[in-house]
């Protein structure tokens, strides 16, 4: 099982250390950092206590896309319910979904920067949104404490003896495959001269939201890419496709 914690633009290195400790207590190992303000940092090591091995193996990325490129399921965590187009889960329900998806692919749980949380652009990469229920008058937890709550729920769902959910029938498409799909859609929309009528250039953002919410699996991805390629082959004067699929038939054969 591969479940990674992704911390985006963490300002306080102490929070990175405390998050690493929370993870290690609960059996999680993979820490990914996107543009941390300061890392490595003595404050992170001090707060990690006995979890400095997680800091040593932590991977640092410039972009969130890179941190989730290999992941099927991507869960965003937010204190505020501001991204209403995504299903909103509590950590417990979320943990069950994560454990299931992690049986056939990599999963990421993404945490935002301390003061402002995840941006809409960052949330647009997520398939699910999870909020830790709190007193409505003060809903924002300390970053590392939010990591602790998710890690604890994952531990309960995965500890020895916990019932193992059946794996997904077909693994989910990965982040990098989703990025290719969006490029392909953009290209086809351009070729068929489809007009963005969202009034503000939101068309691609809305399309992303739609497909991320749908949690596209590998078969569905093959079908979608096959359809796009078929549209292009009718219209394209010559060349100029996004990296092509193995073959359209592959997807159709496996789909149920
Ligand atoms: N005002 C910000 C809080 C940032 S706290 C917001 O609205 O999200 C830093 C990060 O900790 C958040 O981005 C989120 O990933 C996590 N976090 C804090 N409180 C949370 C809560 N109640 N539920 C889920 N995640 C939370």
From TrEMBL:
Residues 235-256 are annotated as: Disordered. It holds the Pfam family SpoU_methylase. SUPFAM superfamilies: alpha/beta knot. Its main location: cytoplasm. GO terms for molecular function: RNA binding; tRNA (cytidine(32)-2'-O)-methyltransferase activity; tRNA (cytidine(32)/uridine(32)-2'-O)-methyltransferase activity. It comes from the Bacteria. Residues 3-152 form the tRNA/rRNA methyltransferase SpoU type domain. It is found in: Cytoplasm. It catalyses: uridine(32) in tRNA + S-adenosyl-L-methionine = 2'-O-methyluridine(32) in tRNA + S-adenosyl-L-homocysteine + H(+); cytidine(32) in tRNA + S-adenosyl-L-methionine = 2'-O-methylcytidine(32) in tRNA + S-adenosyl-L-homocysteine + H(+). Catalyzes the formation of 2'O-methylated cytidine (Cm32) or 2'O-methylated uridine (Um32) at position 32 in tRNA. Homodimer. This is tRNA (cytidine/uridine-2'-O-)-methyltransferase TrmJ. It comes from Steroidobacter denitrificans. The lineage of its organism: Bacteria, Pseudomonadati, Pseudomonadota, Gammaproteobacteria, Steroidobacterales. The gene is trmJ.
């Amino acid at each position: 099982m591969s479940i990674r914690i992704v911390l985006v633009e963490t300002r306080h290195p102490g929070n990175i250390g405390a998050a690493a400790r929370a993870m290690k207590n609960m059996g999680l190992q993979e820490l990914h950092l996107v543009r941390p303000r300061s890392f490595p940092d003595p404050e992170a090591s001090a707060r990690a206590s006995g979890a400095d091995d997680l800091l040593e193996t932590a991977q640092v990325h410039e972009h969130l896309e890179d941190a989730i490129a290999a992941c099927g399921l991507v869960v965003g965590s937010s204190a505020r319910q501001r991204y209403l187009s995504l299903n909103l889960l509590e950590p417990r329900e979320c943990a069950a979904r994560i454990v299931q998806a992690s049986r056939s692919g990599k999963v990421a749980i993404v945490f935002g920067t301390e003061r402002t949380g995840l941006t809409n652009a960052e949330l647009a990469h997520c398939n699910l949104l999870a909020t830790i229920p709190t007193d409505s008058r003060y809903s924002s937890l300390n970053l590392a404490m939010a990591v602790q709550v998710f890690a604890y729920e994952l531990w309960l769902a995965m500890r020895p003896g916990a019932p193992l959910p059946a794996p997904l029938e077909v693994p989910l498409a990965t982040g990098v495959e989703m990025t290719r799909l969006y490029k392909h859609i953009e290209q086809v929309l351009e070729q068929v001269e489809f007009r963005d009528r969202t009034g503000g250039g939101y068309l691609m953002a809305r399309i992303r939201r739609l497909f991320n919410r749908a949690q596209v699996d590998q078969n569905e991805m093959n079908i979608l890419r096959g359809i796009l390629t078929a549209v292009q082959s009718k219209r394209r004067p010559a060349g100029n496709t996004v990296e092509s699929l193995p073959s359209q038939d592959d997807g159709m054969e496996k789909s149920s």
